[in-house]
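Re: Re: ligand-bound prediction request (bumping)

Still looking for help on this. To restate: I need the protein modeled with 4'-deoxy-4'-aminopyridoxal-5'-phosphate bound, output as structure tokens. Inputs repeated here so nobody has to scroll up.
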Amino acid sequence: MSRFFSGKFDALTPYTPGEQPKGQTFIKLNTNESPFPPAPLAQQYAKKELDKLQLYSDPQCRDLVAMAAEKLGVGEDEILFTNGSDEVLNFAFMAFCDAAHPVVFPDITYGFYPVFAQLNGIPYREIPLQEDFTIRVEDYLGLNETIVIANPNAPTGRYLPLSDIERIVESNPESVVIIDEAYIDFGGESAMSLIPKYDNLLVIQTFSKSRSMAGARLGFGAGNKDLIRDLNTIKYSTNPYNVNRMTMAAGVGALEADGYFQVNCGKIMETRDWTTKKLEELGFEVIPSMANFVFAKHPDVPGKGLYLALREKGILVRHFDKPRLKDFNRITIGSREQMKALIRALKEILEAEQ
Ligand code: PMP
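Reply:
Sorry for the wait, this slipped through. Here it is.
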């Protein structure tokens, strides 16, 4: 730290991203990326922007908003696009949380939430998940705090049915309820359908996972138009050109190519079920997942040891060195070939243990 760094960040512990090794030496199952390339149409539209990069991008993202309104069934004033969903999450913390409206989220969830709270000087409270990593809905009813729930949750993959989400939104009319749906396209039911009914609901999604665009950085928030107007106030006070031209065009193509997107989500879900079965045959406990990853532990090998042994064999998964998580590894669902290689490697590791 330099002697110039503001004291207001004394308590800030930044987010630690998953490893991004150079080159293709690893089978990379550690950051929930898609094994499939972006839709051909997304690539084609992005390329068309290359000779226009001297011009700023459209701060209103009009083409993208129009396509999203058509494909996702939201009003054009009910959606805002950002540089990854991390950016709209930060905007939402800035817009809807402060000392008078502290924020709550589960004790086990996306590691960026406490960072956004610290960064913005917002008091936060973590509500313990139950032993099996499920949310007790009653813990979230009638609170006077802004609520953030990842559904499906990370890193567990646990999913809360839409009826439970609705109970939480309905019972907190004076607080914003933020549902982070980064992984919703892998079998869950989105809360976007509830937007016309509740003015306190903000749904956040990303193009990073199901639409194969993690490297392009595109996410969005959808909700009542007044919430979106507030988020735009924050956006225009930080970075009006937050979505670059190539990403914006690729986003239009990705939405237009909804057949490609659905086929890929289907493949991931099938491979997730196949992987779960194979892991269970090897003696793993696998938390039921509705995401593009599984969270699994083995009774005979510690989580960290398994992570390191897989790494030795050229396979990267994600290990969290935290009390309730350290026995587990989070394994992204890749292509069928990648998952076959994972199962082969695990067999070898477990045999060597005996
Ligand atoms: N929410 C959750 C629950 C996530 O796991 C992630 C991915 N790290 C994000 C949001 C952010 O994704 P992105 O910024 O790539 O849209």
